[in-house]
Amino acid sequence: MAVALYNLFISGDETAWDSDTKTYDVDRCLREYTDKDVFEKFGKLGKEEISELKKLPCIFAYEDYCQKDASIGYITDILVRQVGVKITFQKLEVLSLATLHELQFELDIKNWELNRTHWAIKKVNLYDELNKVGIRFNGIKSKPVDITKHYFDVSFTFAGESRDVVEQVVNEVGKLIDQDGIFYDNNYVGQLARPSLDTLLQDIYRNRSKLIVVFLCEKYQEKKWCGLEFRAVREMIMDKSIDKIMYVRLDAGHVDGVFSTDGYVDGTKYSPQQIAGFIDERLNLLG
Description:
By secondary structure, this protein is an alpha/beta fold. 31% of the residues lie in helices and 24% in strands. The strands form two sheets. The protein has a six-stranded mixed beta sheet with strand order 2-5-4-3-1-6.
């Protein structure tokens, strides 16, 4: 299972979290109190890193001398410049200063850390720790995902006849990773009701998905929309991006572009929970 993470923002500015934006010096971003492997994963703050960071819950806190309560919420945007990093955020719930101190060990916040303006990422499941003290943060919804811009961890392509199986797998994957990291058509019915849908789908599959899971079957070959989505897969194969493609076979049906030498997960042999575990394994390997 992927490691749970959260963003910790601390500022000595007593008005830091009164608006919805805050700018940090570059050398105060992720360079302090963040494990080396986490910094290596997110430190360059590129498009994909920013997309991942926006999925993580956040604590927006003040340095101790301010004696002010913190907030919990999400990042909605990150703008990187040579002079600094501008964070746009959404606060959703108050986290009292007393509770923050009470959970300091559980949240992996070092003593001097609450006296230092910085942005760190912690290897802690913030939802679980807050639930223990009665704050049901995992029930609070952040700004809806905009599928025209969002980067997904995993996207699914399949024939409609396979939906029952696919939906079970999607539900199991949702227990392992953030729901916002999953592109599944039924989760975005309203946003998919638009002209030029073919262009949008190809962009999602080709450019904004870390992993594409293709559910192969006889009916897949017959479907026009599956053929459109599979064009993105074929282009990725041509570009040798094969680590970003995963086949799940539901029957022996032929699909153009898939060969007998291609590996796959046998969807008739493994349960939806097991298939979800294989997907999570692939995502972890992709980093």
